[in-house]
Amino acid sequence: MSTYGKKAWGAYEMTRAAYEEQRAAEVQFSVWIEVKLHTTYQKGVYRLTVSSEPLLVQDYHLKHSVTVDWPNSSTQTFEALLYQQMHKLCRMLESASLDAQRQQAKLQRW
Fold first, then answer.
1. What does the pLDDT read at residue 88?
2. d(CA 27, CA 76)
3. What is the pTM of this model?
4. Angle between helices 78-109 and 6-29 (to 10 degrees)
5. What angle do CA 91, 31, 105 make, to 5 degrees?
């Protein structure tokens, strides 16, 4: 049984899930994923940017980025927002990878 309260345990689980998404995507797609947190001109508002850089030059289609300000109009914790943005980036990488594979298969048919 956990000694954490529900809120603390939920925050830990969301942060860990975001980390696992990141590591899995870095291995699967050979990319470097970077998480940046910047202040904005609005007092108390931060900008979270999650971006991917391909390790190989020919994988330029895997360069993506998602950005969001926090806090915003949604009522979610920072940990949930981090997981959400990491999940979005990983799904973008999957989609780009599948598109590249389809394009390659189409070119091989010709």
1. 97
2. 29
3. 0.85
4. 20
5. 65
- CB neighbourhood size of 79 (10 A): 18
Kindly state the average pLDDT of the residues 50-56.
95
Tokens of 50: 């999650």
Nearest alpha-carbon partner for 25 in 91, 82, 83: 91
CA distance 85 to 76: 12
- The alpha carbon of residue 64 and the mean position of all alpha carbons in its chain are separated, in whole angstroms, by 9
- CA 88 to CA 95: how far, in whole Å? 11
- The partner residues of 34 in beta bridges, in order of sequence, read 51
What pLDDT does 27 receive? 96
In the structure, what pLDDT confidence band is assigned to residue 25 with cuts at 50, 70 and 90? very high
Task: Measure the N-to-C terminal CA separation of the chain; round to a whole number of Å.
Answer: 60
